[in-house]
Amino acid sequence: MSRIPLIAGNWKMYKTGPEAVETARKLASLCSDIHGVEIMIAPTFLSLPLVAASVEGTPVKIGAQNLHFEKQGAFTGEVSADMIKATGAEYVIIGHSERRQYFGETDALVCKKIKSAIRAGLKPVLCVGETETQRDEEKTILVLDKQVSDGLKGCGLDELKDLILAYEPVWAIGTGKSASVDQVQQVHTYLRSLLEQLFSSEFSSQTRILYGGSVKPENVKALMGIEDVDGALVGGASLDAGTFIKIIEYNR
Ligand code: PEP
Fold it and tell me: Among 45, 78, 102, 118, which is least packed, fewest CB within 10 Å?
């Protein structure tokens, strides 16, 4: 089963609208002859429609970094899946460790968000990963098992066809310290077997599993060469188009 790699950039709370458009345009011009890899950037909500319009018709696709699970309503400051979809975005990142850590997102909330994204026709990128303490205490598999099982609880196979899983060890995010090839291989093999156990072998073999955590031009080739790694979720190194394109072109 061939899985087209996805290289996704999470721009977090960086860049004003004009700055985001400038970087997105630059990236789109650098990507004009890229084949065999999907490219996505996730700017802030405010920049979503601007950036989506600026890269329309190019290989650069757009995602949001979060959503509220209700369709609409009195939820001050929130943004729904339908609103994201209407900007032209195709993807939404859900359950990023910064949302879990700083905004108290639980697996149950993550699950509601996944279902809401699917209902709206967005492709959810479900982020899972252990903290340094959990790894040290040898709880990595336990933590991932719960995050995936509870995050996808009650979802039917037909609903999950566009699901993307992203393994992001918390201790590797923004630290410059990527997980080793062995560590990534071990976890990705486990996650694929978990998807098989929870759903089916066909589903497991067609679902993309990204790695995220200090991916840079210097380490991307080794990480993407690992079996069961189907792309990368990139934070810091995606903010500059010149750097991000080197990650996207990891196979050249
Ligand atoms: C992220 O925030 O998803 C991430 C992987 O960040 P960084 O690449 O900066 O470690």
Answer: 102
